[in-house]
Every structure is written in structure tokens, then in C-alpha cells.
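Lecture notes, unit on protein representations.

Consider one protein chain, 409 amino acids long.
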Amino acid sequence: MNVENLRRTYPLLIDYLRENGYTKVYINEFLTDIKQVLREASDPRINSYEEYYDSLSTRFTKSTLHHKLKIIGKIKQFDLKGIFPTSIHRCGFLKQDNYECLSPEYKNVIDVFVKSATNRGLSESYTRHLKLAAAKFFDYQQTHGTHTLLDVSERTVQNYFYDGEKIVRGFDVMKQIKNVLKECIPHYHNGECERIISFLPIMKKSHKTYPFLEEEELEKIKSVLFSSDCTNLSLRDKAIVTIAFYTGLRGCDIAALTFDNINWEHNIIHLIQNKTGAPLILPLRPVVGNAIFDYVEKERPDSDNETIFLTRDKKTRKLRTTSIYNATIAVLTKAGVRVKGGKRGLHLFRHSFTVALLQNGIQTPVISEVLGHASPISIEPYLESDLICLKECALSIEKYPVGKEVIEE
């Protein structure tokens, strides 16, 4: 693995982190992993950052590996592409891009998809995600002897999803590949895209029931949000959670809120969603507006930065998603909610907000619009969390004889 460029340029990365106000702990994590990469790059078994990361799997816990994935991914981006870490690139870059290994025709299919999707206004992140999925699919086809769409057979398509014993790729992957091929149909008039689509397996989408907060937990959180006692809890964290609690906004959108997104005169929040790229307009409830106002007036650092929520260090800057998560944990801890385990994080408030709307009889199309869903079917997993409505659908077993021993067990 060639790391001469990293060995020569990594001081620039460290200087960048220092100049942009990153903490000493975070910078030391970069230094630790950079030195480790430089030491182990001479191992003939390691030919890429992905293989280096895989070599760590037996040395660290799952949570530590997840954190290292982000750091090593950002080191890779800096080394290979000269990209410095930003809040936009927050998840690391250790995703294998098989595009460069593809045949000219397979590359062309992906290029056509990207161009068409971009022209239709689909978000960059969504387009990139589908591009990666399609590249993996075509790389598999290529390693099994095909180099054109005409060569692709039903057997090689089915084998991509089923290894003969179990399903190895599910509904989401199938849907991604199907969407890429459907996007290309108008540009390929030989029917090959439709033919490959017909080879895709029929799969049912499965999902877990979304976690949400119980009524008792909600009341404890409200008591903290409305309390004047801010011991161990900043006004910034209270404002962030208040927004999530009463609007259901995603963490990435809360972190990106600017003063231009708040219309105080008409009491609305208007923004372009980070995830979907679609506009969203929400009412600015007094409780939300008051929380933002308190933070801005009493605690926010003096800064020309138009982003509302800022870091508290010398280099005031937009919050990263980890800071949004930490705000959630701070409020939950202060409220004594899920301190001994259980699902935590900002999405808990989004899920609970949605369930509350459902239980109050709000129609699902309205809820989807409030949540900023790109697809109306995105609301379906939330329906399974609405226990009140689910109980109404339950059937009585009075007409069916049940043995006494069953009840006793």
C-alpha cells in the first residue's frame, strides 16, 4: 500500500484541524490512526485503506471500530483526493467504488443514469448511493463473465441476491438496481434494461418497528425542556431538542438551520432538506421560538456565521451531527430517561412526534408532508408503532375455544 503522499502531507491535515477549531482529543485520534497506517502499510497483505480497516476487526470493539471507520475514511479522502474533513463528509469514505473496474458499456449505463438523475433534480447523495449500488452489481456480473447488457443472464442476476442457500442481498439493493435501470430505459431502445429488470427477484420490503418514547418518558423530557434549571444542560442543547420534540426535524436539518430559515413575522420555519433536497415549511410554535431566542440572546457566541447553532470553542462553526446526538443524550440524561439502556438519539423525537400525530387522527398524507418525506410510503413503518390504532384492529378470541392450560401458561 503506497502511503508516501500521506507521509509527506499529513502535517497539512493536522494544521487544518487545529486552525478550524477541532479539539485536541479529535486531532490526536487522527494522529494515532495516521501513524498506525504508516507503520502497517508495508504489510504485503494490506493493499488499500479498506483492507487496513478490515485488519483491525480483531483488535477493537464494535463501537470503537465504528468510530475508527469515520476517521480512517477521512484520512483516505485526504490522502487520495486532497479533501479535508468537513461536516458534509461526516460518515467516512470506506465504501468500495467498483466503477473504475467496469467495462465501457457498464460504465456508460451508470453515466447515463447519473446524468439523467441529475437533470431531473434528484439529490446528489441519492444519486451517488445508487451509482455505488449499480457499480457493485455490474462488477459482479463482470466477474462472472459478462461485459455488456446483452451478456447478462437471469442466472447471474439471481445469484447476485441468492447464493444457493440464503438471501445475501435484500429488497433495498434490488430496488436500487431497478431504479438505475428504469432511469436508463428512455436512453436504451434495445429493451436490454427492461430485460434485466425482469430478471430481478421479487422481494418484500421488511423493516423493524421504529422505537418511540412512552408517555411517561415524554413528560419527563418536557419537564426538563420547560425547567429554568440549566445545571449540566446548555440552552443550545435544550433548543436543539425542543425543535426536534415539537417539529420532528432531522438532526442534519437542525444543524444546518440559519437565521434566514426562521420567519419570525409569520411564525414559520422554511428550509431545503439535506436528505431529499426538497423544500419544507413548518409552523414556528411559541415554545420552539422561545427556545431559539433564549439560546441566541443568552448563550450563542458572537459570530458573523449565519448558522444558528454553533460550537462553543474559539473557532465558532456549524455543529456536526455528533454534537446534535450529544445534545439529545444530555437532555435524556437530565430527564432520567433511558439512562440504563434502550434506543437513544434524535430520531426518537421524530418517531414519537409522528406517532403523536397518528394518534390524534392526522391523515397520513399530511404527516408525510410535515416530516418532509420524499415518498408517501415512508410513513408506513410508523404505523406499526401506533399501538392505539393497532389495538383497535385486534380480533376478539371469545368465539374460539382456548384450553385453560394455554391461559395459565
